[in-house]
Amino acid sequence: MHITASMRVTLKPFVPTFPCFSNVVVSLMDKPEVDFGLKVMGGDLMAIPGLYQYVQKLIKKQVASLYLWPQALEIPILDASLGATKKPVGILHVKVVRARELLKMDILGSSDPYVKLKISGGRIVPSKKTSIKTKNLNPEWNEEFKLTVNDPMSQVLELHVYDWEKVGMHDKLGMQVIPLMLLKPHEKKELTVGLVKNLDSNETRNRKPRGSITVELTFIPFVEDTTGLNGPIDIYMRKETVPKTSSFVNRPGLLLVTVISAHNVEGKHDNNNPFALVVFRGDKRKTKLLKKTRDPIWNEEFQFMLDEAPLEEIIHIEVISKRKHRAFGFASSKEALGHVDINLVNVVYNNRINEKYHLINSKNGMIHLDIKWNAT
């Protein structure tokens, strides 16, 4: 197989540690050219009429959907513990208002559109999605979303409009990007932008009208200093008793939970395969599983967007070992290695805690956590 493509390679951010950058971000600037052969028992399958062109087109389409700019493959070079990754600086409030004059994709001359939206770069997070508007070329959504912003001067909001299909891949109706540098903090801005096939200005299909999409955007930066609560707060204090002089109590914000590492997590077996489970408001997040270690280092961050400060709430973090049983094929079992419950009122009061905690139900186990509350 021979692949030829024009690539955009970005080294960022720069850090004072060799090799002086923490990530390599790779995007394709156009669809790749793919040349390949496939022989079985001496016979060339690609000689079958139409098969070569079909497979080539399929590969190009799939690769482009993953890595055509502004989609990107982000390759970490330095460990996250070095602090090279930019931390969130605010929240982008997005209201997807409407779309007009979308393409007709169905046999009956209509489409079933929905919108996927995300912010380029930063953490790899799932896209947000609007509802599906069936048989509508001029849909009205008026649906609101919140997205985390790491660098408003370089990031863009990606808007992808698709035609929903019950079976098979969803057809792309169009897309567009909006640079966040166009936004002033706290100022609501309504924008109507034309949809294109992709961001390649030389693409002839971009000359075909694809309609437009209207969104309302507001960038709310985090408050730099949220230590406005007066006096110490008891961990059992109810929200109603917290001093109302604090302007941060009723503010929305972002709870950042970084599971850094654990130490001396012992189980019934000599070798553990530990991962950490973070549970907050019924939402469960997992770190990657590390094999054969009692001292795992994860450095994984989880984000929870909240409408107000979590003054009365507890976050539960548990270390679990997972083992496969060879005798039973794919069967596996889990063993709890210890847990900890953190009162978040202390995080809100201090803005941030970075501590090592003794794991409950563990003889010597410790876990290292970094938890931060960013109010807007």
UniProtKB/TrEMBL annotation:
Cellular localisation: Membrane
Taxonomy, superkingdom: Eukaryota
InterPro entries linked to this entry: C2_dom, C2_domain_sf, SMP_LBD, Synaptotagmin_plant
PROSITE patterns: C2, SMP
Main localization of the protein described in the UniProt heading: membrane
GO MF entry, a single one: lipid binding
Record domain C2: where: 69-193, 238-357
Any one biological process term the GO annotation gives: lipid transport
Residues covered by the SMP-LTD domain: 1-78
Keywords: Lipid transport, Lipid-binding, Membrane, Transport
GO cellular component, one term: endoplasmic reticulum
PANTHER family: EXTENDED SYNAPTOTAGMIN-RELATED, OS06G0685300 PROTEIN
Protein name according to UniProt: C2 domain, Synaptotagmin-like mitochondrial-lipid-binding domain-containing protein
